[in-house]
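chain below, 347 aa
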Amino acid sequence: MKDGFASDSSSRGSSIIGAYAIAIAEALENQGACADQVLRSCGVMLPATTDPMLRIDNQTIAKLYAAAVQATGDPCFGLRAGETLRPANLHAMGFALLASISIRDFAQRLSSLYRVISQNANIRVEERNNSFLLVTSSPPSSHVCHETHDAYIALIFTLLRTISGNRFRLKKLELIRPASEGMAQVFAEYFQCDVEFGRPEIVMAMDLDLVDKRLPGANEELALSHDRTVMEYLQRIERGDIVNRVRAIVSSELSSRALNKDRVAERLHISTRGLQLKLAARDTSFQEILDHTRRTNALAFMSRSSVSVTEAAFSLGFSEVSNFTRAFKRWTGLAPSQYRQSLGLER
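prediction:
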């Protein structure tokens, strides 16, 4: 640990990318506070780069946010910090998100790759009551402060507006944090929707009819290129993480019909039972990882007109195209051809 930062993976389970400190410093200066003084009081110096290998632990970031709130007198300071985060601060993940094909593709990519920014966010997507939900939670043991959550939702909201040409609107927002005096109005005005506080998870609700429309800046090849860069970083950050290791094996053998949990356990040199227990300890399973990997790759394939449905099916390890079609409809609510029509790739 040096100047509040760690450059190895020793604290990967309770850390966040060092670029957050840069965002906090800029937000402090924007509000007339002395960033250097606040950072020094917390034993933090600004990182010279946005290398995702440079991490800051949760206790330090919480201390830094508390000092920033005190220095500015702004209980909504986390929103201000989130506003200053830029795609470049997020390294390759930021550019991959900007090149996403659709809002659904953005959300799936965020769910898969956000680990390079923070190991403390569990992100998933759901569909309920004609709404598309981006759901985020953090394990209590991670000690993530409310300001970190505020910065996160401000960042995601800003990115969604950017890729949607500022037409993006939330239907509803649910937050884990309690509301202090005056905060409810600030959040309602900021996000321009109904906001509920004190909820068990962060939920960003969007119009389901809009999430599959092709975005103006969509670029499949660019997004996939940046995805690969992020995965390389993740392998360095999470080299010993069982979920990441299983995901890497699944990705490399996805087209093989011999891919199953026995095969993965064999490659990891552990028993199948041992693999199941290790994954269960991380609240997941081989099947969940396989389904998530297939879904992510399926969305990418169906967003590329050069890949046929048959090619996609066999590349994802399905023995029959009909099985792939059923799975794709379960994931998206649409058949592959309908999904492509929604992106303007087929007529």
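The mean pLDDT is 86. The radius of gyration is 21 Å.
thats it, cya
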